[in-house]
Write a structure and sequence with these properties.
The complex is a heterodimer of chains A (490) and B (223). In chain A, strand 5 and strand 6 form a beta hairpin. Chain A folds into two domains: 3-46 and 355-485, no CATH class; 55-172 and 200-341, no CATH class. In chain A, helix 2 packs across helix 13 (401-442). The two termini of chain A are 28 Å apart. Chain A is elongated. In chain A, the strands form four sheets. In chain A, strands 1, 5, 6, 7, 8, 9, 12, 13, 15 and 16 form a ten-stranded mixed beta sheet that branches. Chain A has a two-stranded antiparallel ribbon with strand order 2-14. A two-stranded antiparallel ribbon of chain A has the order 3-4. Helix content of chain A is 50%, strand content 13%. Chain A has helices at 3-13, 15-50, 64-73, 84-91, 127-130, 152-173, 178-184, 232-238, 287-292, 322-333, 343-386, 388-396, 401-442, 453-478, and strands spanning 55-58, 82-83, 96-97, 100-101, 104-116, 119-124, 142-145, 227-230, 245-246, 249-250, 259-260, 266-272, 283-286, 311-312, 314-319, 339-341. By secondary structure, chain A is an alpha+beta fold. With 223 residues, chain B is of the alpha/beta class. Chain B is built from eight helices and nine strands. Chain B is globular, with a radius of gyration of 17 Å. The longest helix of chain B has 17 residues, at 176-192. Chain B has a single domain (32-56, 72-222), classed as Rossmann fold (3-Layer(aba) Sandwich), CATH 3.40.50.300. Classes of the chains: A alpha+beta (490), B alpha/beta (223). The interface between A and B is medium-sized, with 26 and 33 residues. The structure holds adenosine-5'-triphosphate (ATP) and magnesium ion (MG). The site of magnesium ion (MG) has 3 residues of chain B, from helix 1.
């Protein structure tokens, strides 16, 4: 028997009141914990997702944010194209600032626009696997298999070949099928509205147009270039294993115009280990295979038929230093054929907009917690009238005023602690229950077991708040006159 | 030296239009181990006197010494500690705490005097065995008969081994037979422990069971 036991017992006697006040505290604490958990996960997710994407060089047109969202998060359509020559210049260090080459760790070409069963196809080179580095996590690791064999040299050879084809074939067909050449020039874009066309096809996917007279050039692509590496989630969701044949599909399956890119069918040779980033959702294929898909390839008719005009969606660049990064920024300020987007600036900016919405939520949950604490105070204060006899009896047994006050404070603190614990537990329980749904809806994967040290402070803070709420009832309790309340008549 | 020594004691309430002298005792000594029955008409201040001795109320004038401690001079906290250490109280309405079992109620009598440990628990169990409640220790007061409840209250008043037991009409709520049993138990246990007993009662037969009877009505007239 001690003061704690007395507190615990009197809480148990008033189960309903105890439960209700505990629940109201739990609501506020749970709300707060949920917001922290969600924001923490969002923050973590974006931070890890950005790793490796120091800078993104993309088309001059379009907002840098859409370039970042498209390249890093597979969101939206690629804003346009950037010529292969830009990639070459950066990679070879030929791009200069103040006559000095800008040192980069890597420059990796990427082309986007097609999908396979809902997952984005990314045309790239094997440097995506050998050089692309996600901070401390290092280069992408393989759960199974190995990278495909399509490197920088192969890309250059392929581009030269295409330039030659274009120079020969472009002249022959330019008059007859102008829109073929035009749409073929872009990996990702609608032909100009003025393009003469007999029957404009209705496509489910904007930004990607095929002429009615698709030319499939199966011979042109060697088997070693028709290989794919898939992200962990792709492999898991589509139950893909090594040897699986990916046939890129254009348009939704129910679309009458939908068709398969048989010419670019790729065999899965590698499955990446999970990263918890959008990389898990990507399918990487050699740029050659990507560009070989109907009319993806090549070179704008108005451009010179040189390999440097092969079109990319973006170049992922990691400058060697912050100085190199600023040089890169300056270098592109004056260029007409591309711009640099900085994921580390664009995404935090975007998040700060979202952040002010969560700030409101945060304030609301603080208010909920405060109201709950006031509720606790009122509930406890109101019981003091019915507890006068109990208190008088304890005093008659020799309890001192401060001991009576402590009994009441313990009760308030216990309710607050239980409420906060329950709230945190509810929050994590909800994360456990709803995690899959939230991930499906927002793409934010919640680790329900990720208890943050903030939650410890939350519980501690709630206990302090509870004790503060208990001060008035405790004071009232300690002032209960003894003699008047020792008999039940009063 | 007297266990309880009271001189020129008065307690007056000034709440109503007329001041009410609730208690007035000119001179009263009670020896260690003495068992005293306090009688008097209703309203003569028997309860008030017990509360004054226990330090629950403070006198307006006069002095009370219990076991050499000048209770009237103590601060509130000191009176609480004094009460916890030196006194055991038994009430007409038992004043057991409903949420606690019989054993826990008895233990509550020791919480504020020494505070926890295993000693009081054993003593509490012994006392409950002694009053015939060995098999009811874990029952709530509401599950006990009136006589059993008062026996629990007596155990609570004795568990911390006080020097003085103050009982305010401890038999008032019981039929004669039960009351006699409970009274016997109280006096027996007190005698074994050499405790001083002051018991308020209206029943002359009960009063006769104690060594001495003090009539407060007479004391009041004298002062
Ligand atoms: N809190 C109080 N305020 C005003 N007057 C009081 C108060 N408590 C007691 N009194 C008065 O003091 C007097 C003595 O009361 P007390 O309860 O001590 O009498 P008692 O001898 O115990 O009576 P009973 O035998 O009925 O229990 C009574 O006249 C009562 O009205
Ligand atoms: Mg009385």
């Amino acid at each position: 028997m001690n003061l704690f036991a007395i507190s615990a017992r009197s809480l148990r006697v008033r189960v309903l009141s105890t439960l209700l006040t505990t629940l109201s505290i739990a609501l506020g604490a749970g709300l707060l914990a949920a917001i922290w958990l969600l924001m923490g996960e969002v923050d973590r997710k974006y931070r890890t997702s950005l790793q490796g994407y120091g800078a993104i060089v993309g088309p001059k047109e379009g907002a840098p944010l859409s370039l970042v969202l498209n390249t890093v998060f597979n969101l939206g359509a690629s804003p346009g194209i950037v010529p292969l020559s830009v990639y070459e210049e950066i990679r070879e260090g030929r791009i200069r600032f103040n006559n000095r080459p800008i040192p980069v760790r890597y420059a990796i070409p990427q082309a986007r626009g097609d999908h396979y069963r809902g997952f984005p196809l990314v045309g790239t080179t094997d440097e995506m696997f050998f050089k692309f580095t996600r901070g401390d996590a290092g280069t992408l690791r393989f759960a199974k298999g190995a990278p495909f064999a399509f490197g920088h040299e192969e890309l250059m050879a392929f581009a030269k070949e295409k330039a030659r084809e274009h120079a020969e074939g472009g002249e022959a067909h330019a008059e007859a099928r102008p829109q073929t050449a035009r749409s073929g020039a872009r990996p990702d874009h609608d032909p100009p509205a003025s393009a003469p066309q007999a029957s404009p096809p209705a496509h489910g996917e904007p930004g990607h147009v095929h002429g009615p007279e698709c030319e499939h050039d199966h011979e042109a692509l060697p088997a070693r270039h028709r290989q794919a590496v898939v992200g962990a989630e792709v492999a898991r969701k589509l139950r893909i294993d090594l040897g699986y044949r990916i046939v890129p599909m254009h348009g939704a399956p129910e679309d009458p115009d939908a068709h398969e890119h048989q010419e670019a069918a790729c065999e899965v040779v590698g499955i990446l280990a999970a990263t918890g980033t959008p990389i898990d959702r990507a399918i990487y294929v050699p740029l050659a295979a990507f560009l070989a898909m109907d009319k993806h390839v090549a070179i704008r008719p108005e451009q010179a038929a040189e390999h440097g005009n092969v079109a990319l969606s973006a170049v992922v660049v990691e400058p060697r230093s912050t100085i190199a990064a600023s040089w890169l920024r300056y270098a592109f300020q004056t260029r007409m054929d591309g711009q640099v987007a900085w994921p580390g600036i664009e995404i935090p900016q975007l998040l700060s907009v979202v952040g002010s919405a969560t700030d409101v939520l945060r304030v609301v949950s603080y208010v909920v917690l405060l109201v709950a604490a006031i509720g606790l105070m009122v509930a406890l204060y109101n019981t003091m009238n019915e507890r006068r006899r109990e208190i008088a009896i304890l005093r008659s047994l020799g309890a001192r005023r401060h001991q009576i006050a402590r009994i009441v404070l313990y009760e308030a603190g216990a309710i607050a602690a239980a409420g906060a614990l329950l709230g945190v537990a509810l929050c994590h329980g909800a994360a456990w229950l709803l995690g899959a749904w939230v991930e499906h809806q927002t793409g934010v994967a919640m680790d329900w077991a990720a208890f943050s040290p903030m939650e410890g402070w939350l519980i501690l803070g709630a206990v302090v708040l509870g004790c503060v709420a208990g001060i008035a009832p405790a004071f009232k309790a300690s002032r209960t006159p003894v003699a008047d309340h020792l008999s039940p008549t009063t | 030296m007297a266990m309880i020594a009271i001189r020129n004691l008065t307690k007056t309430y000034r709440r109503g239009p007329e001041p009410v002298v609730a208690c007035s005792v000119h001179h009263l000594d009670i020896q260690p181990g003495e068992q005293v029955a306090l009688i008097g008409r209703s309203g003569t201040g028997k309860t008030t006197l017990l509360h004054l001795i226990a330090g629950i109320l403070v006198p307006d004038a006069g002095s009370i010494e219990v076991d050499g401690v000048p209770v009237h001079q103590l601060s509130e906290g000191q009176r609480d500690r004094f009460r916890a250490a030196t006194l055991g109280l038994v009430f007409q309405t038992f004043n057991l705490l409903q949420p606690f079992t019989a054993l826990e109620n008895v233990l509550l009598g020791a919480v504020f005097s020494q505070g926890g440990g295993h000693g009081p628990r054993e003593h509490a169990e012994q006392l409950l065995q002694r009053v015939g409640l060995g098999d009811r220790m874990h029952h709530r007061p509401s599950e006990l008969s009136v006589g059993q409840q008062q026996r629990v209250a007596i155990c609570r008043a004795l568990v911390h081994d006080p020097k003085v037991v103050l009982a305010d009409e401890p038999l008032g709520n019981q039929d004669k037979a039960t009351g006699r049993e409970v009274l016997q138990l109280l006096l027996e246990l007190a005698r074994e422990g050499g405790k001083t007993v002051v018991m308020v009662t209206h029943d002359p037969e009960s009063a006769a069971a104690l060594q001495r009877t003090v009539d407060l009505t007479a004391l009041r007239r004298a002062s």
